[in-house]
Amino acid sequence: MGKNENIEITRILDIMKSKKLVILLILIIFTILGYLYSYHYVVPKYKATSTLLLIPNSTTQEKVIMTSDLTVNADLTVNSGLIETYRSIGENSKVIKQVIQNLGLPITEQELRKEMKISVIKDTYIIQVAVTNTDPQKAMEIAKEFDEVFLQEIKDIYHLNNIGIIDEAQLPEEPNNINHGKDMLLFFAIGMGVAIITLIIFYFFDNTIKTEEEIEKYVHLKSLGNIPISQDKTQEIVNRDNAKSYVTECINTIRTNILYMNATKNAKTILITSCTPREGKSWVSANIATAFAETNQKVLLIDADMRKGRAHKIFEVDHQEGLSNYLYAITGEKKKDIMLGKEYIKETKIPNLHILTNGTIPPNPSELLESEKMKKLLEQLKNMYDIIIIDAPPCKLVTDSIILSTIVDSTVLVANAENTKMNDFIEVKKSIQMVDGEIIGAILNKKKVAGKTYRKGYYYGQIETKELKQVRQKEIIAVEEVIKQSIAKLEEEEETIIIDEMLTKEVQEEKPIQVVEKDENTYRKIKKILKNQQKDSEEALEFLVNERITEMQKETQELLKQEITKIDVTDQILQINEILSNLKDSYVELTSKVNEKEREEEPIVIPEKGKNVIDFKAFMKKSKNKKVYSIEEDISYQDLEETAIYVVPLESKVEKYHHAM
After folding, report:
1. Quick one: which of 590, 598, 583, 497 has its CA closest to 548?
2. Are 154 and 79 in contact (CB under 8 A)?
3. Bridge partners (DSSP) listed for residue 445
4. Fewer CB under 10 Å: which end of the chain, C or N?
5. What is the pLDDT of residue 628?
């Protein structure tokens, strides 16, 4: 037995349980009808019966000669036709008329025939006569009179002597057409048949979902809650001024269950769809989005029904440009695509709730929703908002919702109580699961509840005025603010990725750096050190270059004043100018490199204090060596090799100058 057969059998048994009062009522009604029929409706009739023996003469003679059973049976077979002839004579109108005339009965021949029954007992010469009448005395008289008239008619025709009455008709004491037990049992059986037919009608013609238990038992989906029929049919968004009302509490319960079902996978995008139109999915989507917005989360409602979306009517916003236009405008550049949200995402009167309407109706909605752009847009919006509710088209009409279920985090199905057919709901569930869509549960919408329950509410009370003011005083987050926060978050993520890559690269190259645990505080410290280091390096280099240029200019002027004619200082001056030029070029190169590092934000590790580095004051020292180094001071945050490119060796003429000094 298949799974579906088990479900159907279980459903039949449940229908019987749910309709047991109806079945019991049917049986009681038919039993009462049987009683009334048997005791008060049926007219009692009495039956008088007589038995006649008609033996042909030839049979008597043959009996004297042959007495074997074989001979008797053969004789009965031969004369069976004669016995039937006798019975026909009894039904003849001549006999019937004679009986009516003799008794003076006020009935016709046809009526008397209906009251009489003449039958032949098989394989015998016996004829049984039964007369039925409402008057037992008259029934007996008719039977006796018929026997006399009938036997006389047989004698006159066949001249038989071997005929006679075996059992004379007696006065009947009880009616033969009334059996109270039998009648009531018969009506009870009829009632059972009617009850079974009623169950079949319920099974075939009332195949709708009525309770949350049916969703869990037959569809095998978790029930997220139910929403009663709104008493104010003109109100699209439930009035949440009374936060403890029954309807509000039902919506809040659904919100809590959705959060619970998505807690383990941190789901942000929630698709809400149904089987057919007019089941309330748009109304449910709007009110659930409103409930999420009250929890101080940034919520976005997307109207993905590009054919007949009505979210813009619920929130009274313009829908000329929306989801379809946004998808066509996507470029692939993250920052630019985020900025495009200003044109298509709109604010609502609900704090923290924004809406992306369906927009211009495209020629290919299914292909557009299935495109790579839709996936990228959802990923982008997930970085902008905490919760995204997607109002999707009905699954039985188009495949849009089935397509969307493959790219969202979770899907919720909406059923309309006593309207959504069970088979349709199961079929939609299978369609989504076949494409690996994740269904977290179902919502039973428009459930009928008693008016008293609707007014009473869950907590039997009204929200306090102070609490209501706190709810209404929530700050409205603008779309521009959400976009600004998203861009800042994106830039921070990019910086984090760059720093992570730099640290990973340093570790892979096995450089002698101090590896620090990569946490959020470390990233901030590294970025701060990097910026300070770049600034300090640039300022220090500029100061040293300017200082050295000034000193060399003073030295040159001093040489000229002393009129040293023995030494050709032309080459020396050229050398000095070349040094100055090299220093300037080096400064420009270092500045370019620092700026490049600032753009890449590559973190470098501060060397330990006291590490040997080059000192530019070495140029002022007198030495016979061609290259002069000093380790008197540290140049902050620079490696020896990186700094060495700024050291210019002194030529021999300069060394002679030092000796002369």
Report:
1. 583
2. no
3. 227, 416
4. N
5. 43
User: Could you tell me which residues come within 8 angstroms of residue 491 by beta carbon, excluding any fewer than 6 positions away?
Assistant: none
Q: What are phi and psi of 58, to 5 degrees?
A: -60, -35
Cβ neighbours for 537, distance < 8 A, ≥ 6 positions apart: 590, 594, 635, 636, 637, 638
Q: What's the rounded Cα separation, in Å, for the pair 30 and 325?
A: 67
Residues 242 and 248 sit within 8 Å (Cβ to Cβ): yes
The residues near 22 (Cβ < 8 Å, ≥ 6 apart) are: 195, 198
Residues 6+ apart with CB under 8 A from 600: 498, 502
Check whether 135 has a pLDDT greater than 80. yes
Report pLDDT digits (tens) over 641-650: 444 444 444 4
Q: Tokens 């939609």 identify what position?
A: 428
Nearest to 483 by CA among 348, 337, 357: 337
| Residue-wise pLDDT tens digits, 294-326 | 888 999 999 999 888 889 999 989 888 899 999
> Taken in order 308, 314, 316, 321, is the CA torsion positive or negative?
negative
Distance in angstroms (rounded) separating the CA atoms of residues 442 and 258: 10
Structure tokens at 406: 């493959």
CB 150 within 8 A of CB 102: no
For residue 123, CA distances in Å to 77, 127, 167 come to: 8, 11, 18
Give the separation between CA 200 and CA 442, rounded to whole angstroms: 28
Kindly tell me the sign of the dihedral angle through the C-alpha atoms of 203, 208, 210, 216: positive
The letter for the amino acid at 595 is: N
Region 377-387: what's the mean pLDDT? Answer: 92
CA–CA–CA angle 138, 143, 144 (5° rounding): 100
| Assessment of whether the complete model's pTM goes beyond 0.85 | no
Rounded CA separation 101/148 (Å): 13
User: Using an 8 Å Cβ cutoff, are 237 and 287 in contact?
Assistant: yes
- What radius of gyration, in Å, describes the C-alpha atoms of the chain? 55
Sequence length of the chain is 661
For the chain, what percent of residues have pLDDT higher than 70?
67
Q: Give the residue with greater pLDDT, 572 vs 622.
A: 572
Handedness of CA 415, 420, 422, 428 (dihedral sign): negative
Q: Give the pair of three-digit tokens for residue 199.
A: 């169950």
Could you give the residue ranges of the DSSP H alpha helices within 316-399?
323-329, 334-344, 365-370, 372-384
57 dihedral zone (left: phi>0; alpha: psi -120 to 50; beta): alpha
Instruction: Enter the tokens of residue 183.
Output: 């009648």
Which has more pLDDT, 436 or 555? Answer: 436
Question: Residue 455 is which amino acid?
Answer: R
Average pLDDT over all residues of the chain: 76
- Burial tier of 265 (Cβ tally within 10 Å: 0-12, 13-18, 19+): exposed
Q: Distance between alpha carbon 490 and the CA centroid of its chain, in Å?
A: 33
Structure tokens given for 42: 């049926």
Q: How many CB atoms lie within 10 A of CB 132?
A: 20
CB 119 within 8 A of CB 128: yes
Q: What is the pLDDT of residue 333?
A: 87
